[in-house]
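Example with several molecule types.
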Amino acid sequence: MKATVHVTLKSGVLDPEGKAVQHALETLGFSGVNGVRQGKYIEIDLSDADPVGTHDRVDAMCRQLLANTVIENYTIDISE
Amino acid sequence: MKATVHVTLKSGVLDPEGKAVQHALETLGFSGVNGVRQGKYIEIDLSDADPVGTHDRVDAMCRQLLANTVIENYTIDISE
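Resulting C-alpha cells for the full complex:
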C-alpha cells in the first residue's frame, strides 16, 4: 500500500524558497509568473493492508514528523 | 491558470532525505514502513490563458530550472 503526502505552507506564511524560484524564472525570461509556492511531496511504501487504519497511521506520521502543523498543511492519499 | 509540478528522484537514485525520514518514523515506533521517497511539489500561478502553450512553457521551466533531469523526473498538471 502506498501513501502520498503533500506538505504545503499555509496561506499567509512567507515562502522564501518559492520567491527565489519566481525571481529565477523571471531572470530566465519567463514572464507572467504571478507567484510560486514550494512544498514537499512524500511517497511512503507501507506493508499495511487496511486503507482506513493506514490513513490514520499516516496522519499520525504527518503530525509527529512530516509536517509542522503550526505553519504547514498536509494532504494524504492512500493507494494500492 | 495554475501549474502543479511534481519533481521526484529517478528510481535507482539514492534518496538520503527519504532514508532519514524512514529511520525517524521507525524510531517513533511506526512499523511496516518499507520505503520513503521525498520530492518537491511546486505550484506556479500564471497569467496565461492557453493551456497547451502553458504546458510547453512550464515544461521549459522544469528543464531549465525546477528539475535536474539527470537524476530527477517531473510531472506537470495544468488547471484553471
